[in-house]
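Entry 14. Ran structure prediction on the chain below.
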Amino acid sequence: MRRLLWAGCSQLLSWEAGLCARKLSAAAAAATPCCSPWSPAASGSSPGASMGLLWPPALGHGAPCRWGSQFNVPPSAQFVARPVGVCSMMKLPIQASAEGLDAAFVGVPLDTGTSNRPGARFGPRQIRAESVMVRRYNASTGAAPFDSLQVADIGDVNVNLYNLPDSCRLIRESYQKIVASGCVPLTLGGDHTITYPILQAVAEKHGPVGLVHVDAHTDTGDRALGEKIYHGTPFRRCVEEGLLDCSRVVQIGIRGSSYDPDPYKYCWDQGFRVVPAEECWRKSLVPLMGEVRTQMGDKPVYISFDIDGLDPAYAPGTGTPEIAGLTPVQALEIIRGCKGLNIVGCDLVEVAPMYDLSGNTALLGANLLFEMLCILPGVKTR
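Output, structure tokens:
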């Protein structure tokens, strides 16, 4: 009986929500000039789409677009309440694959590779939840990604939490399909182990890539407890397999104590540029990013952003925090400074929500992923 009551209430709630959305959008359409993109006359889309109806959350490829646009567009909180609907990145449509997309948000809920506090497996879910506050346009830069690219959330990689090498295989195979379709992946991590199999897939298509790596740690260790794969080793494994163009690797925000008196030697020996956090204190990073753009040139570049690159005062929800890190303003300067580069993929890793009950770390992660979307090749400015 309880199940029957719940099913009935769910259907009633769904019908009432749709009715409410119809009333609100009809009122908006009546009050909007005919030249507005919200009006039916402004688009050749279906009447439902042009009226801003709340489409079912799992749209799939070929489903009607919302809000009278030829692209998928995040719904406005003026017409759809933020808590409504299935939790997807920026409340975008959910697709089963990357086919037909220019860019896709992908979750990799894995934290089996962590060396300290676990919890990053819940990062993608919390980032999606906090992303309801991220809107359609970047008012600071003028970027209009949803007027330029077809974007959707394609869900999570089904990782194996009991077998880290097998998880790497599953991630690699999933991303091989994504990049083969011509889609640029924007990844919600997960611990930093996941960047290794992602770069295996990316380099298979693009060849060795340049890397803009923001982190408190270089993640170039060799082994821990006898294991060669964990979140402290991804970039050494990438070097060994020829996945990186080492002359085009920059690591920004590195800091903290170490077990080695010369902790950056391996990176320098490979030709990496290491920018310690001390070189970033109390200054704008705009000049640095001018140098980075010159270094990267027009060849493929991957952005990997560990949230612990930021000071734990701003991002406490992570597994291996280090004091005296970057600020959110500097994070924006780094990402916006990558505009114009040939970016072929991005990730935001190591958000562990249970260490920040305010949700601010995940909110910061969601905004940084939006900033990454805004600098992808092909994104127009208004």
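The chain is about 30% helix and 15% strand. Will compare against last week's run tomorrow.
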